[in-house]
Protein 1
Amino acid sequence: MNASHFIAEKVAAVDVSGIRRIFDRAATLKNPMDLSIGQPDFDVPAPIKEAAIEAIRAGYSGYTPTRGVPALCDRLCAKLAEEFPDWDPTVMVTCGVSGGLVLSLMACVNPGDEVIYGDPYFVSYKSLTPLLGGRSVIVDLDDGFQPDPDRFAAAITPKTKLIVLNSPSNPTGVVYEADRVRAIAELARKHDLLIVTDEIYDLLCYDGRSPSPADFAPERTLLLRGFGKSYGMTGWRMGFAAGPAEILTSMMKIQQYTFVCAPHMAQRAVLTAMDTDMSATVNAYRAKRNLMVGELEGTFEFVRPSGGFYVFPKAPAKYASGTAFVEAAIKNNVMIIPGGVFSERDTHVRISYAADNEILEKACDVLRSLAG
């Protein structure tokens, strides 16, 4: 039997994630210096672990309401009310920000609808939109990896429905400037568009808060946030979405037939997470950011990151592409990701500094020697 006959064309057209290909390569190396993975290198704080264990012992192992545990939804609404006093969104708990992204696009994108996002971009954006019959419209960010409102405006057509923003950014680590976000929000109002804002790294900011479109056009904002990156619980799949009631109701309807609900015990534990001070972790990652900047300055061309745990330097001129530089790094036991995974151009590389400082220093020694 030719099983490929049964694969939908829209799925067959989607390539396997380039990040996963690098992970497969890592499995062939002995003790690689892994600066490829977008996962925190710290453990879930003990009180949060204990809360999850106690939730299991207490029998919180069944389904929750589709929207999420009411106590958690209430806490999330209260948190957003403090941050955005003029906004009263509907909130639901999602299976990570990725789950929220899937639900938001499924709820909003019709065949032929256009979704705008900036290049470089997180890998899911490019693949999910065509899976739902939409068209990805990719707009170059400026040289500082900031969204250029004029470029976004020029990309808007009568078919445009959504703009996707991601700040702090994966892969660049850049935090968008308030004036840029405000201008994009004004575009959404002018052209009757919705902004889907992926803010998974919102707590991991090192030079001030990351502005959100909810600051400027809350009625045009569908906000996606999560707990995986900030609390070390990526595998717990905990996120939430907030936005207009009609859209969230549609997302909940889809969740009923797909994810059903986010993990019950993890939702209970997130209530403890919301009371856990993560400032020491943020300070530690700020120090890692500073370490990486110091290690790479003078050898690599890059934009100083302000959030998340990535830096996105340009590949040295002696290499034909970002992929070529990554291949050289892998041969020297350093795992990084080609920029072409996140961009229409293969000119940069993504380096994660979610690793032990000693590994960061050793890996940077290798990268500098390869660039020389």
Protein 2
Amino acid sequence: MRVTIVGAGAMGSLLAARLLSSRKDPPVSPDQAIEHVLLYGRPSAHLEAIQQHGLTLTEQDGSRHTLEIPVSSDPADVEGSNLVIVLVKAWASAEAVAPLKSVLTRDAVVLTLQNGLGNASAIRGALLHEGVRPHVWLGVTTQAAIRTAPGEVVHTGDGLTAIGRRSSNANPQLRDLAQLLTANNWQTFAIDDIHRWVWRKLAVNAAINPLTALAGVQNGAIIDDAGLHSAAVTLASEVVEVALNNGINIQKNQVLAAVDEVARETGSNRSSMLVDLELGQRTEIDAINGAVLAEARRAGLRVPANQLVTALVRAREGQFRHHPDTGDEAN
């Protein structure tokens, strides 16, 4: 198995490190062996630092180790990959994978582990080449990591990964992939109803990310501050309403419990949306709260809390442009 990870950010770097570390141990079976791991991304100081000095990974217990990770920004180096895992920002999905459409075969599997809605659809469209494209599967992960400097990543939260297909059934190939990733230090489950998992994580992100970004606080403030907690409950409840209307089997009490659990377990973390705003970068608001707003409008539902935070984050981004998915002006 040859694996390429698209997106040399914190999560992409963490996954590459995990899969490469597993190669030190003999696989349980030849089918669970990973022959090659490549971290693919646009040229950056982080990618250059890894290429020159390796990736320095700080574990949750404080231990640090450096791993040599093959990196590239050349699509030709991705040729021959059996599995491509996409971990770029949601808004960059199509742009990141489009250069790979001529080097991936129809037998390859492309797995998105990104935040928000619409990533798989964007990837499918971008990879269509001469009438064919690779398999594109959905996934979510509760692993967490932050990049502290070029070439340095901190693993901030352990977790599980769930993967599935657009249809409701987990076929043998999907189960084999879950077993492969689990055998190589990335605990993964093949799920029949992956859309429920995607919407559940969407609700958690929609509740935590914009509030922490706008308030400039760590995730734990969602639990500690009564006002923020009330706002998080409102945001997540609106997501559940839209999900139920879309036929997603999701329970509000479980989603609200998940919001509290994530905020508590990642209490000292700063959400990616907060970091993006601080760095003056584009956030994933359109794929998270903005996607909820778009789905609600298609269904004739009102989600005023999600509409408000979407407008506020877009204004902070300085995206004074028309958003065709909602019909709103960003400001």
Protein 3
Amino acid sequence: MLVFLWGLLTFVFVWVWHVFPHQTLISVATYLALFYLVLLTPLILGQALREGPTTSHRIMGAVAAYLLLGLIWSLIYYAITLHIPGAFKGLKAFTEGDSEVLYTHFQYFSFTVLTTIGFGDIVPVAPIARMAAATRRWAKIEAS
């Protein structure tokens, strides 16, 4: 029930952010969405990894959790850039109106790091951005 209510609150803030784009609303909506996905992922993963036979639903749950990890990290990268503009090199300059385009760049970057492809077109340059990308990569290696 908590996850549902948090998801509803997140949806309302994201909707308000799209109607009234303001930097504070963007930050609040980003953190609400991040916390919602952090709450949702263990629930899905717990159902996928519980004891019992392997079914197609469990496999789909594991894939969904993997994809949610990519979205979580894209929100982390996005939040870093909201507070430290220029934390990543290779992004086109953006204004407040281009925050959606910026987020899609971080989705791309997140999944290239998650899959260890790493094309190198987006590079973390701020220390916290480098730490987030490196932590992400080490978590992937240790899970293997």
